[in-house]
Amino acid sequence: MIPSILINDERLCKGIKFKNFKDAGSPASTARAHNHQGADELIVSDINASKKNKLPNFDILSKISKEIFMPLTFFGGISSISLARKCMDIGTDKIGLNTQAIENPKLIRDISRQFGSQAVVIGVDILKKNNSYYVFDHRNSSIFNNLNPFDWIKKAVRMGAGEIRVMSVANEGTLNGYDYELYFKVRSLVNVPIILEGGCGSLNDISKAFDCGIDGVALGSLLVFADNNLIKIKKHLITNNKNVRE
Amino acid sequence: MNFGIIDYGDENTGSGNLNSVLNYLYYLGYSTKLIKYPEDIKKVDKIILPGVGASKHVMKNIKKKFFDSALTEFVIKGGKPFLGICVGMQILAKNLTEFGEHDGLGWIDGDVISLNEILSKEKVIPHMGWNKIKFKNDKLRVNWNTDKFNTFYFAHSYTLIPKSNDIVNSTFSYERELVAGISFKNIIATQFHPEKSQISGEYFLNWFAEWRP
Q1: Contact A192 B124 (CB under 8 A)
Q2: What CATH number is associated with residue A146?
């Protein structure tokens, strides 16, 4: 179980379908709570970095990494190997690339050659429309024309990506459940770990994800705006005989 | 207790995840020192060789900064307690194969090979996430309340295959049994990341601090 938190300047935030972001507290203290409640990993995304073409917020990232002793993945405007290196030096374990990799796929190869494949996570925001899947561009809420999401995922793995984070845009922030079908589609294409994100709204959604054998599920709104925490979720899973780390 | 963490990074590769290890030891209340030059190894009680990165890069940097001969002198000859983590364990082997065949430090007779070569095609690689380890060899006296704190974080695409199983202190299961940790004399090394393993890592690192090989 992987809490996924978003940073907007100095604060945490959370939106619905990549819009209407609301303030959600302090990043470092939230990260600390997730660590002590036994989160398996943490994903931090700086939502402004690539949108506004800014540098990632290294200061917040450094504060977070001093609070947590579990794997940390960082997304947000990492457009060069030197920025990736800076994130790794601060204590990030995995470099998350989204639109930067689409614009410069060579980045995947460069970073994985230097830090290993396990350090490169490709984030793909996928929008389902009329039963077709498109790659969504979060910077301006449009879609990438002429880019098939599944071809892109295969290419990214060929180039050295060690993990894929699949975000289902239509479900994001809705608490309506994961897009399991999307997961199985990606699973059939590549053999790297897949993190599924977008839509988790109940303890049963997480149970179901376990039954589907999903490598990792990201939790957003469920932990931010609903009356849930990881301890409660783990208890629920253990009661339902799921194999979780205690 | 004074820990020395080998900083083999350079301006091109940065320092890998040295800071993760530093942060956790600091949080647990230990004094730590980044070792930037081989002669500084003298000043510390125990040595940690962390590892993130491709083994080829790591070996190149270690040689460039003359850590290979210094480590052999202080650890193999001098007997200073040593902990290698992830790639920091893999490069102890004789033969490495990540991005082409090359030599490791050669403290362990064995090979480091890709998981792709030994696991089935369907298996998810890298092996990434939490996994339980099983203890193999009581003679190696490895115990940090291991009945309870035995789930650790892994992230790797390569695995160590030692010639002799006598040095294997623990294994994990990922389609088949693979090496989680090895130990001999004053050396212990792990494929998992104690610095990323929350409470299990805390027990492990406290045990290493107390360890009198």
Answers
A1: yes
A2: 3.20.20.70
